[in-house]
Inverse folding.
């Protein structure tokens, strides 16, 4: 999780929205081909992470777990499209959806102590 999934999700979340600094408002959306490619690569990795989570070793026959993993994959595939279409608004919206994908599985499967470390 920490090594495979988290860095890619962070890249997505750091690539949308705005931050307000003393210098003014900064748009975080990708503005170069390189930045969009990085988003695309992160999205592809999220789809792959979903594949890994669905493997029997991780899923252990739990239907809800598989559902959360497929949700994650679906968002990853939509993120791929958004990156290919250079669609900053979709990237922003899907970033919110991605957060819900992570959170809903954690709500169900992470113990409370681990959740507090994450929040
Ligand atoms: C299918 C279920 C599932 C999904 C989806 C999921 N996680 Fe997790 N995650 C877990 C479980 C279970 C753990 C605790 C066990 C572990 O560390 O492997 C965990 C642990 C973590 C940890 C480490 C927490 C700690 O206490 O050290 C991080 C960071 C994390 N997840 C990030 C994410 C992010 C970011 C996403 C979404 C992009 C995500 N996870 C989606 C199930 C999931």
């Amino acid at each position: 999780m920490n090594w495979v999934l988290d860095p890619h999700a962070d890249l997505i979340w750091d690539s949308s929205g705005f931050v307000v600094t003393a210098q003014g408002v900064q748009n975080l959306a990708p503005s170069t081909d390189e930045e969009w490619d990085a988003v695309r690569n992160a999205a592809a990795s999220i789809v792959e992470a979903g594949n890994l989570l669905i493997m029997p070793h991780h899923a252990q026959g739990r239907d809800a777990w598989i559902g959360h993993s497929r949700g994650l994959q679906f968002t990853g595939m939509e993120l791929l499209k958004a990156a290919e279409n250079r669609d900053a608004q979709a990237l922003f919206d899907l970033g919110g959806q991605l957060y819900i994908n992570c959170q809903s599985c954690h709500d169900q499967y992470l113990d409370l102590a681990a959740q507090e470390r994450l929040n």
Summary: Residues 1-2, 5-6, 9, 53, 65, 68-69, 72, 98, 101-102, 105-106, 109-110, 114, 117-118 surround heme C (CB under 6 Å). The chain has a mean pLDDT of 92.
